[in-house]
Amino acid sequence: MNIPDQAVLQILVLDFDTLACEEVSASGFDKSGCRVQTSNHREVGKIIGLRVAGFEQMIKARIAELLDAEIVVSFDFEESPAVEKRAERRRKVSIPAWVSGRKSQAGVSCKIIDASHSGCRLASPKLQDLPEEIQLQIPGLDLPVVGRIVWRSPEHAGVKLIWQFSNGKEIEQKRYRPPDLAGKVGARNKGKADSSGFGVKRKRPTN
After folding, report:
1. Element (H or E) spanning 182, and its range?
2. Looking at the record, which segments are called Disordered (predicted)?
3. Does the structure show a pLDDT above 90 at 86?
4. Does domain 9-81+166-186 have CATH number 2.40.10.220?
5. Which of 35, 50, 83, 172 could make a disulfide contact with 59, Cβ separation 3.0–4.6 Å?
């Protein structure tokens, strides 16, 4: 892997159960996995998504080991783009999202009101204007999530999520260069000291 052995990187962790993003630190990168500083994912075998700035695709990873304040994950570079289907359970969420066609920036604002590994439900009175093939912009994630509308009602729509993961070739072949996140985001979020380079709002420390 072309990430230096001693590198400590800020990455995004995506929870496929809730579509929630968390910005954390990761280290110990090699071709098989890395260590992630998080206390929110404590289930061995669980599939999560890792977004490393500088690479174009998300990495699918499986939690292999639990440590005190870290997890060890193994990368899964199988060709299938799907998330492993376990016993799926819809979780109630409330996530604002921007939804548009795959080839258009014109879209509608809506709310994701439940989610699972393979799909979600949207709520908005304007969903009838959307094409079948869509992409969702989720807060905290700087990559659009591709989806397909499988059913609609006047104010709701069911969406199948089509996850697109790295097959490992980019990570093996591309020389890693830390992106200038501060420069990219500085103009957009000038004065927002509580925002990270990915646009994820940092939690303020509590006394």
Report:
1. helix 181-186
2. 174-207
3. no
4. yes
5. 50
Instruction: Locate 171 and state its tokens.
Output: 């990570």
CA-nearest of 90, 11, 13, 79 to 46 is: 13
Class of domain 91-162 (CATH, top level): mainly beta
The residue type at 89: R
Task: Select the more confidently predicted residue: 54 or 75.
Answer: 75
Q: Kindly state the percentage of the chain with pLDDT values over 90.
A: 57
pTM: 0.79
Separation in Å, CA 9 to CA 53, 126, 207: 9, 39, 27
Q: Which DSSP string corresponds to 71-114? A: EEEEE---S--SPP--S---EEEEEEEEEEETT-S-EEEEEEEE
pLDDT at 184 exceeding the cut of 60: no
- Spatial distance between the Cα atoms of 115 and 159, rounded to a whole number of angstroms: 9
Indicate if 91-162 has the same CATH topology as 9-81+166-186. Answer: yes
Say which residue the tokens 């071709």 belong to: 31
- Which pLDDT tens digit goes with each residue over 115-173? 998 999 999 999 998 999 999 999 889 889 999 999 999 999 999 999 989 887 766 66
Buried b (16+ CB within 10 A) or exposed e, 10-44: bbbbbbbbbbbbbbbebeebeeebbbbebeebeee
